[in-house]
Design a protein that fits this description.
Distance between the termini: 37 Å
Order of helices and strands: EHHHEHEHEHEHEHEEHHEEHEEHHEHH
Helix content: 40-55%
Number of strands: 13
Structural class: alpha/beta
Bound molecules: pyridoxal-5'-phosphate
Number of helices: 15
Strand order of the largest sheet: 2-8-7-6-5-3-4
Largest sheet: 7 strands, mixed
Radius of gyration: 22 Å
Length: about 400
Amino acid sequence: MEKRFIYADNAATTCVSQKVLDAMLPYFTTAYGNPSSIYKLGRDAQRDVEAARVKVAKAIGADPNEIFFTSCGSESDNWAIKGTAERLAKRGKKHIVTSVFEHHAVLHTTQYLEKQGFEVTYIPVDEKGLINPEDVRNAIREDTALVTIMYANNEIGTIQPIDEIAKICKEKKVIFHTDAVQAVGHVEINVHEQGIDMLSLSGHKIHAQKGIGALYVRKGIALPNLIHGGGQERNKRAGTENVPAIVGLGVAAEEAVKNISEKAAIITPRRNRLIDGILKLPYTRLNGDRDKRLPGNLNISIEGIEGESLLLMLDMNGICASSGSACTSGSLDPSHVLLSIGLKHEVAHGSLRLSIDENVSDEDVDYILEVIPKVVERLRSMSPVWEKMMKGEKYE
Ligand SMILES: *Cc1c(COP(=O)(O)O)cnc(C)c1O
């Protein structure tokens, strides 16, 4: 078996596409004007920033003046949540509704707000990784300022019933924000038709560079300033615009939403082949609903192994993947997402996330399906936990 290099971690980040890179390059060399400058070099930069804004808006069905460029998806989430909280607290609304399995950019923000005296309701998810919209309805109170629920989960890829949740929020006259960082480019989104009030997206998950994001804020919602200073981003977020990154995000967003169903038609069968292939191993389970999930995502728990060891062995075989335990952060806590769908700690620890795009070919899938059983067998053969399991002993 010839060793390959396979990038199967597109939920962590993506490469900058050639098209995006080509679009960006002139802004480092010849078109380097400051968009605030009065001469042509500056005016051109201004024009191109605005053209990128139109592209990002179009990609999600918004108006250009509803798009704010930020430095990342996390910043967009922070601004939407803290900004709304600050604004509505003045009217006595100090309650926020979110879910237990949001990205940390949302969860750590709501935890911060709890320390500032806000109350937060964390909606549970079911064993398939889906939120029940009725739970959102029941959680909304007179003093609810905001509902923030992610569009698609970054670990298990499940797509949430956003339309229903948006409808409930509209009925209850509560602002609805969604972290759509994982959804943009994979799911058709039209914020106006869907009744979404605010939406976060990030460049580096859709083949733009790291360090650029956007926040959509529906017209009529006056979010407080994020950064004070110059008049950039309609006085809301000061700081000279990151012109190359913004131009790149414009192209990336345009490209990402171009062939969503065609891309899904290529990726989904490969994803399904990976799922079925890995599930042939004993003591494995698919995490998250099989159908209501992102085309490229699979997350499987493999009992009797440690996720980190699996990742290292896959790396030695040229496969970039991710796991459900947060070893990188120096903590041994298993993922809050996997715990939220009811997995036991030891099962959550042995989880594997593959997030493929159309560049992962059928031959790559064959290769992955050859490597994984070998690696798993080897790890299990060295695992005291697995040995106990096979002897039918209880293990902790
Ligand atoms: C990656 C990600 C973010 C953070 O985006 P950054 O641009 O890396 O800050 C937020 N939410 C979700 C769901 C993500 O997957």
